[in-house]
Amino acid sequence: MVTHHLIGIGGAGMSVVAELLAARGNAVQGSDARHSAVLDRLAEQGIATFVGHDAGHVGPGMVVVVSTAIRADNPELVRARGLGLEVVHRSEALARAAAGMDFVAVAGAHGKTTTSAMIAVALREAGLDPSWAIGGTVVGVGSGAHLGSGRVFVAEADESDRSFLNYSPRIAVVTNVEPDHLDHYGSEEAFIAAFHDFLARIVPGGLLVACRDDAGASGLLDVARARGIRCVSYGRSAPSGPDDIAVDGDDVVVGGRREPLVLRVAGDHNRLNAAAALAVGLELGVDLPTMTRSLAAFTGTGRRFEERGRRSGVVVVDDYAHHPTEVAATLAAARAAAGDGRVLVLFQPHLFSRTRQFADRFAAALDLADEVVVTAVYAAREDPEPGVTSELITRRMSRGRYVADRHEAAAVVAGAARPGDLVLTMGAGDVTDLADEIVGAL
Questions:
Q1: Is 112 a catalytic residue?
Q2: Rounded mean pLDDT of the chain?
Q3: Which of 131, 130, 194, 206 is nearest to 163 (CA)?
Q4: Mind listing the pLDDT tens digit for each residue in 45-99?
Q5: Of 84, 261, 334, 360, most Cβ neighbours within 10 A?
Q6: Domain check: are 176 and 311 in the same one?
Q7: Do residues 169 and 274 both lie within one domain?
Q8: Which whole number is the average pLDDT over 388-413?
């Protein structure tokens, strides 16, 4: 039996691949830079894990799985190259784990984690028992990975490094095409071109589901129709075809038939995500009433407006939003949830390149809150850029404050909170740990 060694196995995307490969009978092991609860969970499933990267972890005959975040000088990757081992991207490993199944790939700059999780939970509730690989914890299920007994496989498809082009979906869902990850693509045109390439990956007779309210996704629908690809659109705007889905207040309308859409997650953006999930269910043979009822079983994903605690009359919520559009949508949901209370935000920018490119838009979005503290940039895979700090954002804000040390920033936010407030930690980095610090301080 070939052993798959995953470098960076503790990451959200890699841990999902590890679980799925193991569930399909493969020998799996992996390493990560630091210990985490994810490694403990993997070990409980019989997956060998190592803390720290060491060339000795890699041996002859292995298949080595990497993500774009793994640098070329990683000792395990260097060892694998030296031995002439097969090295595959995590998306390729996932595609292998899903071979022979009806593949649903969910892509887009925002909303893909929640939408893919909605699809998975609703299809399970409807009796299809799908498999899924989602880069986040599905509330009520635990893991972001599951190997079901049905023929459907739902995957969150990452466009950030073009890895979504490794999939061949029967159903491709595109929530939006808003340029991001320009550190990788170099230009907006290249980013959009990758989604055009994604269309070519849809299997013959397959379906594109996309949001017509988003300019980029609407343009993608036009391209798909011109290529003869079947399409279903969704949105609040008027539908153009009989199978398109309209979100009308608390209802969805399909082919003139209206059904109530009762969700347990907040925000108008989640109604659009649910409409995308509904389109997938209908394509897979689930009837409209069953699918709308099944969507009510979805209670959220980890770090997507996830309540982390209540103390002294203050609610603390954590969210993964790290793009200006996501920040604005999350703050709209927070404003509705807070009622007459204030919305206080601790924001951690993710990537120096994104901070530089979108500083103006981050400032405008964050100004929707009552008080904002912005802490230092979370570098992730990047090296620092001269002159790029979170002050690029706060200098453009009317009520933003820059506190570089993240623990000090958490203390400042906790000290400012008063009964009735909603405190929101936001970002794709380790700002999530600060939610618990704030709850403790309160």
A1: yes
A2: 93
A3: 194
A4: 999 999 999 999 999 999 999 988 899 999 999 999 999 999 999 999 999 888 8
A5: 334
A6: no
A7: yes
A8: 96
Can 68 be counted among the known catalytic residues? no
**Least confident interval from 145-149, 414-418, 425-429:** 145-149
Options 19, 49, 76, 112, the catalytic residue: 112
Average pLDDT over residues 122-150: 84
Decide if 21 is inside a domain: yes
Same domain for 213 and 148: yes
Counting DSSP H helices and E strands in the chain, the numbers are 15, 21
Whether residues 11 and 153 fall in one domain: no
Q: What is the chain's length?
A: 442
Model pLDDT for residues 253-279, shown as the tens digit of each residue: 999 899 999 999 988 999 999 999 999
Q: Which domain holds residue 179?
A: 98-295
Residue 115 catalytic? no
Among 76, 125, 156, 283, the active-site one is 156
Domain count within the chain:
3
State the CATH number of the domain containing residue 341. Answer: 3.90.190.20
Tokens of 285: 């043979």
Six token digits for residue 409: 């920033």
Please, are residues 390 and 377 in contact by the beta-carbon 8 Å criterion? yes
Structure tokens at 266: 């907040």
Q: pTM for the whole thing?
A: 0.80
Residues sharing a CB contact under 8 Å with residue 73, sequence separation 6 or more, in sequence order: none
Q: Are the C-beta atoms of residues 279 and 232 closer than 8 Å to each other?
A: yes
Angstrom distance (rounded) from CA 108 to CA 170: 17
